[in-house]
Structure formats: C-alpha cells, structure tokens
Amino acid sequence: QVQLVEFGGGLAQAGGSLRLLCTASGSILSINSMGWYRQVPGKQRELVATITSGGTTTYRDSVKGRFTISRDNAKNTVYLQMNSLKPEDTAVYYCNAKGRISGTYTPRFDSWGQGTQVTVSS
What we know:
Strand content: over 45%
Number of helices: 0
Distance between the termini: 40 Å
C-alpha cells in the first residue's frame, strides 16, 4: 500500500558526488522516519542515514561529514547528498520509510524501495 521509488544512482569517481532521492506514495497518513541503507553482495544491509519528520538525523560513522540526508515532508521525499565519495561507498542503496497508513485503524507500515546502484571508481 506504500510504494517507494528511488532515483539518482549511478557511477562516480572517487571524490565526486551523487544525489539520491526517494519518493513515497500510497495511502499514507504519516511518515515518521525515512532513511537510506546500503548493501553489497555477501554482506548484511547497513544503515547509512535516517531522518525523522522533525528533522532529527542519524548517520553511520563512515559517512559523517560527507553525506547529508534531508527530506521534504510535503512531498514525502527523502534525499541523500553524497560528497567525497569513496570506492567503499559502492553498494546498492535502498530507501526505507516507516509510518502509518490512512484508514480506520491506521496500521503501521515499514516499506522499502527497489534499490539503486551506486558505483564509485578509484
């Protein structure tokens, strides 16, 4: 009932920048948290950054100072500005959103996007 679509992945050189964005759609009452996770083959998905509806952010240590997460609550959209990219940032990046669905009982949702590949060459 809630769909997430990501845009902006691609190829960048080390030291370069990329910007990801993700838009949520569907029967959304509210979105509490939006975030970005990443995964490389053979490893677990890991948190990159999250942001609450109030603007509180969290980052994994390895991206602090290089990545910036932001969101537009009116558009149900979250952004990830990635600067000073490193080859170790290469991964599939997934968008996540948690909130409540419209309706009588307003159930919670925890939805994922399909993923977008980010490749950083050295």
